[in-house]
Automatic annotation (TrEMBL):
Family: Belongs to the phosphosulfolactate synthase family.
Top-rank lineage group of the source organism: Eukaryota
Matching Gene3D superfamilies: Aldolase class I (3.20.20.70)
Name recorded for this polypeptide: Phosphosulfolactate synthase
Database matches in InterPro entries: Aldolase_TIM, ComA_synth, ComA_synth_sf
Higher taxonomy: Eukaryota, Fungi, Dikarya, Basidiomycota, Agaricomycotina
Signal sequence extent: none
Length: 306
């Protein structure tokens, strides 16, 4: 009954078959102009995850219009700050349904951190949260612990329990203690950082436990730092599978750096306002002096050697 009610809320302009959506996405204007070939959706590399409601409201209407134009370049929508818990249930379901209509997954973001802290790590409360997320239509559950001290074994238990509840576990790891809360550079510096090896070892343990992907926290690396820790980025990319890591990169200079150094198929998390800029960079049609005409792909969909 509720699902029927939700569907009835969708405006007529929303309604389009998946076949029609794919048809529009597969026929951009100016196809005679060459540009980089990228993997088609659903893809396993070159993923773009965008931030949903948090710094700005993102409504179902806005999201549908955005993805109607740019959905071919977006793979996932991520909530931040637990914003979804404040939305009316029918509106949240509608937003998730719009994302799914455009073949995008929906991630909870790292709100489980608050669930853990307010429940003293209660397995019963966590299970109720995971069940509610699954029933609401979420696909991916990010497992963050930037503010918490959690043994690796407990993180692994969370990965396994998340998978048992039918969600894709996506642990977030980083080198910065206290990351994820819009802290200042001074606050983060006073908290200290971890050795990159610590982060990489745990990421490997989470992948072994069945993690779908690893999110690399940007704070302490490229965000809220006086100088970027490019050594950490190099350590991550040389130690972990490229298709299993996603970098937070909600800054044009940061995602340009990742594309320049990892190529067009880097998995990146950005703000929804940056979709166009990143798409132009991946496709190699525009950029800054350091990237213009320099981003190339070979052997991808549409350009495969025969």
């Amino acid at each position: 009954m509720l699902a029927r009610t939700v569907r009835s809320l969708i405006r007529p302009s929303y309604v389009a078959t998946k076949q029609a959506q794919r048809g529009i996405a597969s026929k951009p204007a100016f196809t005679f102009l060459p540009s980089n070939a990228l993997p088609s959706k659903p893809r396993g590399k070159g993923l773009t995850e965008i931030r949903g409601p948090y710094y700005y409201p993102v409504t179902a209407t806005y999201l549908d219009e955005l993805l109607s134009d740019w959905g071919a370049y977006v793979d996932g929508i991520k909530f931040a700050g637990g914003a979804f818990s404040l939305m009316p249930e029918e509106r949240l379901r509608l937003l998730i349904e719009v994302a799914h209509k455009h073949d995008c997954y929906v991630s909870t973001g790292g709100f489980i951190e608050r669930v853990l802290s307010t429940s003293a790590g209660s397995p019963q409360v966590v299970s109720k949260y995971l069940t509610a997320c699954k029933n609401m239509g979420f696909d991916v559950l990010e497992i963050s612990a930037g503010f918490l001290s959690i043994p690796t074994e407990s993180w692994i238990n969370l990965v396994e329990d998340t998978k048992k509840h039918g969600l894709k576990p996506k642990p977030e790891v980083g080198i910065q203690w206290g990351a994820g809360g819009d802290a200042s550079i001074a606050e983060l510096e006073s908290s200290g950082t971890r050795d990159p090896r610590w982060m990489i070892d745990r990421a490997n343990a989470f992948l072994d436990a069945g993690a779908y992907m690893i999110m690399i926290e940007s704070e302490g690396i490229t965000e809220n730092v006086k100088s970027w820790r490019t050594d950490v980025i190099s350590a991550v990319t040389s130690s972990l599978p490229a298709d299993k890591i996603m970098f937070e990169a909600a800054d044009p200079e940061v995602f340009a750096y990742h594309i320049q150094n990892q190529g067009a198929n880097a998995n990146l998390f950005i703000d929804h306002s940056q979709i166009v800029q990143l798409a132009c960079l991946r496709k190699g049609i525009w950029g800054t002096r350091s990237t213009f005409g320099k981003i190339i792909t070979y052997g991808e969909d549409g350009h495969k050697h025969k």
